[in-house]
Design brief:
Uridine Diphospho-n-acetylenolpyruvylglucosamine Reductase, domain 3; 2 domains; 3-stranded antiparallel β-sheet; 4 helices; about 25% strand; globular
Amino acid sequence: LSGLEFCAGIPGTLGGAIRMNAGAFGREMKDVLQDVTIMTEEGNLIKMDRRDLSFVYRRLLLPPGALIVSATLSLSPGDKGAIRDRIRQFLEERGKKQPLGYRSAGSVFKNPPSIPAGKLIEELGLKGLRMGDAMISERHGNFIINLGTAKASDFLRLVALVKEKALKERGIFLEEEVEIVGEDEETF
């Protein structure tokens, strides 16, 4: 089936990709999503059609605490070789710019209107900065990679430092693209 080739190389789960409206190469999850079933904080299951969902840049707006438990995607039959070629092409493009050989959470920050987040982080001189085993990638500034046993607290300290420096030195507020959940001592 064809339609999700753009997701090749994006880390995470299907639910996370939908929640974050993951996208690349001009496509987003909202382009293939038909419906989702969510579980509310109260434990109720609600099926929501695509027409009833609201998407913004890198986010599906859901009630607070809601979890995606299932989804229906609209995919098309396709030639296996052509699909494989598109995936290979997308992975090749990603590999030129992104640290695919390391564990990461993908792009950490949303791109502000004035400059791509990765370029801003590079201009701030933060590529290669390390806290514990978490490091701002030297290949792409908007990726924090895990060099082995990085803790979520290492990741969060780097995020805070980048946000502080961007605001202080450039007057730019960076908003996280990743959604932080769980305890901060877990290994990411």
